[in-house]
Amino acid sequence: MRLIAIGTSGSFPGPTSAASCYLLEADDGGRTHRILLDLGSGALGALQAHCSPAQIDAVVLSHLHPDHCLDVTGLYVHRSYDPDFYFDTGEPGGGRERVPVWGPVGTERRLTAAYHTEPGLSPCAEQAHDTDLSTMFEFHDITPGASFSVGPFSIEAFLVDHPVEAYALRVTGPGGGVLTYSGDSDACEALVAAAREADVFLCEAAFQEDRDTVRGIHLTGLRAGRVAADAGARSLVLTHIPPWTDTGTVRTEAAGEFDGPIGVAAPGASWTIDPAPAAGR
Domain 2-280 in CATH: superfamily? Predict the structure, then answer.
């Protein structure tokens, strides 16, 4: 299983990165399967440096803040009007299969509201039509404790601490390697459970100790490191660091709590996720 960072900026796109988006790839059954964990603001553009949006098999959304989901609306446009498909039939989508989109209850309604625009005073208002994202996407609800499969990927959802319904996602690849993606979360027992002995723990660290004191929203580097240590994670990759948070500071904070390998996600960085040797578990 391969992890490629597409967008790593926290809360909004930064000067060198789109907002949250991570591409997972795995070879199985004679082809490469691709899913996205989140598709936040600006990420659809960056994704195209790595694959065509037409090659995405599914999208899994940790939660419905714009920096984690908004570019699904752009994917809808691509699925509808890509000329390679549209001009074959003259119909949106060109007869392609719908893409599964997994997200919290209300995902379809949330994304429809983000995409749809009333025609207002347009002199071409007769060209307007209702927005029906279900023509291109097959929506599925994530609920606490849910387990589901997308191709060769097995995914478990853990409800974590954030001001809106949000899930940490534990993904097991076809070779048995485990990635845990925190989504947005403060430290909580569910996040520790999600990251238990993960080969790669991709964890947000948006806050800094002594500066950001509010709880129940985001992790600091220190708390991310502590969760990784408590979970016995094999490695920690910090991400979702907004432009106003110092990367070196949160990495140093994490290193004070976690003695395993620590990386910082950047657009284009990639990891091969294999299971740890049995003796190392």
Answer: Ribonuclease Z/Hydroxyacylglutathione hydrolase-like (3.60.15.10)
